[in-house]
Design a protein that fits this description.
The chain is an alpha+beta fold. It is built from 3 helices and 11 strands, in the order ββββββββαβααββ.
């Protein structure tokens, strides 16, 4: 290579994307939050406490590709409904902004429990999506940063990032509203039983 600026050779570096799969559990609020102080950022009016449900899981895979014109989202083996698709794309846009990429993504997500049935499927869905998408985009977020990202997709999703018992610290800004573990899963001997009477939404 020459050291003359006018003759510098520009090297094209190809970023190799990989498919990343992540799993997350829904959570049950023990102390609920009652609405948002900031709707756009999903900052709650008060802090809340929850426990993760280890017997239920959402598994999500994400692959970014420069060869796609649009994001493709499937949930439980079917193309996502328009509203769900739009919500996932908005969250992917947040990841793309953080990673400074433009690639579209293929997202495959599935639950081993009924969705839209009061078992917080959106919490586990956006927690799993946040982890899989951020890793697939090359980001290395710590637990606090990941919970902040998940919160933007679904408020209670931030509580599905830490394990066990979690507190969602309400905060007053994007950087100060996050979830943290307050006790490990075995801290209290608690059993939660869910009886599915009807799997429909």
């Amino acid at each position: 290579l020459t050291n003359k600026p006018s003759q510098l050779i520009h090297l094209a570096i190809m970023t190799i994307r990989r498919k990343v799969t992540a799993a997350a559990h829904p959570n049950l609020a023990l102390v609920k939050y009652w609405g948002n102080a900031d709707e756009a950022l999903r900052i709650p009016a008060n802090s809340s406490i929850s426990v993760n449900l280890g017997g239920a899981r959402t598994t999500t895979s994400v692959l970014f590709s420069a060869n796609q014109d649009a994001d493709v989202v499937t949930i439980n083996g079917r193309a996502a409904a328009a509203a769900a698709h739009e919500r996932v794309v908005r969250h992917l846009d947040s990841v793309r902004r953080l990673a400074r990429i433009d690639d579209r993504a293929t997202v495959e997500s599935s639950n081993d429990f009924p969705g839209a049935a009061g078992i917080a499927s959106s919490a586990s869905a956006f927690a799993a999506l946040s982890l899989a998408a951020s890793k697939a985009a090359g980001l290395k977020l710590d637990e606090r940063q990941l919970s902040i990202l998940a919160r933007k997709g679904s408020g209670s999703a931030c509580r599905s990032i830490p394990g066990g018992f979690a507190e969602w610290v309400a905060g007053t800004s994007d950087d100060t509203s996050y979830a943290r573990q307050i006790a490990p899963p075995d801290h209290w001997d608690i059993k939660i039983t869910t009886v599915v009477l009807d799997a429909r939404p």
